[in-house]
Amino acid sequence: MTAKTSNAPAKKPVSSASAHSRKHINPMNRQSAGDRVVSVVTYIVYAFFAFVCAYPFYYIIINSISSNTLSERGKVLFWPMEIHFKNYTRMSTIPGLLDAARVSVLRTVVGTILTVVIAAFLGYMFTRETMWKRKLWFRFVAVTMYFNAGIIPWVLCMRNLGLANNFWGYILPMAVQPFYIILCKTYCESVPRELQEAAEIDGAGTLRVFVQIMLPVIKPILATVAIFAAVNQWNSFQDNLLLMTNRPDLDTLQYKLYQYITQANSLKALVSNTTNSNAVMASLATAATATSIRMSVTVVVVLPIMLIYPFFQRFFTKGIMIGAVKG
Hints:
Blueprint: H1 16-23, H2 33-64, H3 68-72, H4 86-91, H5 97-125, H6 134-142, H7 151-160, H8 168-171, H9 178-189, H10 193-201, H11 206-217, H12 219-235, H13 238-243, H14 253-262, H15 264-272, H16 278-282, H17 290-324
């Protein structure tokens, strides 16, 4: 028998270059005209919202370094005008500002670490079935999110506990946060139980499982809680106002700047009533105004958090999504 020959034309080998180009075809080229219009409109809408979110920060910065007179009149909108940095040099002369900055940094670092550790540990313990009355304690913690006694009983309680005029008055009242505990608890529930069981079979106790197994796994939610706690500690000044009545050395940066803002009108009146000497006339363009003080203070308060956030951003989205929704 003779072999049956095929008359079909032989297939041409596909070159690697053409195959590579097919794999990397731009999805926009495969879209219809309607889809492209929708994509363009979507990009425009998102660009508009991004501009709306970013412009206020840009506006504050350019007004803090522009001529105070023009800024007071609302003339600085998109570009800085008559740039100077006297607002920041003037702020650096505020008595006790550096000490207040140290207190703010210290309370932010210590408070954030303590809050994250407590939230992570309690969130982990509330997922362990061996914990005595864990549902009762979890509900006891969660109910404090909805009910509180008010400011006056809170101040009286802090004084009775010896936390008034005490640095720990900044730290301990904010150490246990039910919302952060719930986030950590939900995230811990998403971790496979087999990891903990394997460590327990090897003889690891509760604390060792938490430190060596759980903490490395739940880093995203820890970063999320750290951002929330740090922002809360850094921006807080009400506790300074209510508790640190006899300890000016414990004043925070935000409280000092709050006092500086309240004196803005007085500073403006002082400049206006000064005798018309040549030095004063020459400095009118950069004299302190209420607007320039508010802008400069806002930059000083917001800038540290803006610089820290990018380092935690890659953990933030994953942590808040998994920690908020189980499954």
